[in-house]
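Hello forum,

I keep getting stuck at the same step: I have a sequence, I want structure tokens, and every attempt I make locally crashes halfway through. Rather than fight my setup again tonight, could one of you with a working pipeline run this one for me? It's a single chain of 798 residues.
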Amino acid sequence: MRKYRIATLKVYAALFVIWVCGVCNAEPLAVEVLPSDERQNISSLTKVLHENGASLSPLQALNMLEGVHPTGREQLTLTIDDNNHWLLFHIKNTEPHHVTRILNLDYSFITKANLYEITGSKPALQGSVHITTSAFERPIPYRSPSFTLQLPPQQETTFLVQIQVAGKANHALEIRPRLYSAGAFIEHQLVKFCALFGFIGFLLSLVIYNSILYLRVGIKSYIYYCLYLSCYIFIVFFYEGLVFYFPTPPPVHWVIGGMAILPALAGLSLIAFGRSILRLAEFYPRLDKIYYYTVAIVIVLLPISFWLHDLLAFVLEVSVVAVTLSLGFVAWFRYRQGDKSAKYFGLSFVIISVGYGIETFLYSVPFMAFVNAATMVNIIAWVEQYFFYTCAAIEMVLLSLALASYIEELRDKSELAQIEVVKQSAKFKAIELANKEKSRFLAAASHDLRQPLHAMNLFLDAIKHSEGKDERIKFYGQLENSVSSLTQLFDALLDISKLDAGVVEVHRSPIVVNDLFKKLATEFSLVAKQKNIRLSYRSTSLVVESDPIWLERILRNLISNGLRYTEVGRVLLTCRQRAGKVIIQVWDTGSGIEAAQLGCIFDEFTQLDHSADKQGNGLGLGLAIVKRLCRLLDHNIGVNSTLNRGSVFSLEVPKSELTVAKVSRSSIEQTPVTALSKRILVIDDDVEILDAMAAMLTKWGCEVLVASSCSEALEIIEKGGREPDAIVSDYLLEKNETGLDVLAQLQHYFGHPIPAIIVTAETDKTSITKIRQHGFKILHKPLRPAKLRILLNSLLHN
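Reply #2:
Ran it on my machine without issues. Output:
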């Protein structure tokens, strides 16, 4: 039994040795052409020889390949250099008839390819393709070298192929030569071309669309996006060898350079697009600078990379991938902060960076050399050829959604901006109109100021040369009228200036209309009686909501205007309720206003040419003040008039919810004028004003101290030994000193507040507000003595 086992083992050992020897000395298997398989990968049965510096003839290569085994793999790994590669394979036609197959070498950047058929152990040239030849001029018009093989029936034919390859420096080249039937090859071409040109058409449509958007919207981000899309188009043309369909193909080193630069440029364009569209400079300025310098460094090193070092090119490409991926995370943070469109931008950046990263890795590492399973090789080959384009297509769909969302946001902002522009335009027009009106206003004011001044000079000269007392008294009365006219004009100009400067404050409260009518009727009764005009009002129980002082001022100006232009008849005050408003009306039976003049009666210095007022004192500013006060109070005012029959002014005022019984009646009572008998300090840098103020206050029974500055005031007070009861100071003093500065120093000196009045010609809102914030009273120049006396009396007795 033991001998039998030993004999059996010896037989197995002998059979194993025979099998090994047979395998080692076996001839290479031939590729059998199968009618059912119209696409056959012949890589595993192909022998490969790299010259590696030696220049071989076809016969020498054939002899050397006799001792080489087939690769046994699903792909051929080649080296990119200037040396030739030789491929040897056997094709066996088992059919009883001739079979035609097309050999496609599946790589566009084969600079030259020669096909030899081995006949009687000698290579015979069957065809040649050079990369400088346009694809349309090749034996088979295709971007990668292809040859037609005529296979005799039931015979085995040996072919030798000489190729020289080019490509990027860091390219791990793996090709899979295939045999196609004629129909399968045409189908392969059509599918490939439809996919590529469909993708290119998609990119071109995006470029055109975004270019139009840039021209319409003018956003810089669209320029970067169009550059990014354009780089993609060139990438497709270069990587897929479509440039070799040109009548004169570009030099291969140009194409290889473009292959090295274009993906990085596309990535850099996308980074610039992301920086701009995500507004990193606004939200993350430090991060934006990092991106900026990274882009600058890559741009500088990129041209060097494909000439000097393979690893540098790989590092730069990986850097672009990493930066693009980081933009995706930044976009996600922007989305979390409320930027809706940033979500799609983030997804697109992540997807394209993943696609570009995998493509770079597979392109630079011979990954298929570690895998030989047909299914895995096919998957990797698909990923190498189509994954990048698939990611790009998905990314661009997402970018389109992002841009649509972004444009929607811009449209909303644009509409708001347009509204703002309209407002600003209206504001500028209003300012322009106001400037024109101001020029006209100043010209008219200049004229009206000269009139009383001219009259005053004449009266002063007449008084100087008058001979009798009665004549001087007459001239004094006329001089007083001129001074009164000038004072009225200055008061009106000051009111308009304050209203235009916006320093007038509004204090709304319920107002009983009947009480207001009664007060105004009493006030103007003497004027009406002198002109033999009936002034009356209709009693009412209505209550309105407005500022009592300014509403009274409006009605006072309207009544004064009605009395001025009415010679015969009446002036009537009425009011009625309409749609939650109270319409207060002032009727008169005066000369009326022509329809053509109704639009200008509220302008400054507008005086209608009516004989009724030839001897009046109208300044043409009353209705201008009314218009500004109505604008301030937000009250509408209108006028209807019939020439030679009269006019009616209508004022629309909000109705108060309160009734007459609930409104506490209060009236503005004039402070009784009594002798002041107080010590008053007057501060002004004008000596004549100091003298005039001292004379006036002395007549009122005051002890007057005058000073031109704070230091002089302190010196006078120290000599006098007693602090003043009140201070009247000018606002602007000499040496850039202000009344506020002086009063602050004096109050600090005395250690407690002292009643003070600041007299100023300023109408600037800032200055007025500053004075009021310090709690001081304000009187505007020209100063009316009666107002000063009432205010001093109020301060000193309260």
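DSSP finds 20 helices and 24 strands in the chain. If your local run keeps crashing, start a new thread with the error log.
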